[in-house]
Amino acid sequence: MAEGDQSPPGTDLILATLQNAVTAINNLGLSDLLTEATINSTTAGNHTIISAQSGLVASVYSLFLVVGSSVDITFMDGSATNLTGPLSMTANSALFLDNRKPAWFTCVTNSAFVINTSAAAQVSGRCYYIQE
Question: What is the pTM (predicted TM-score) of this model?
Answer without folding.
Answer: 0.78
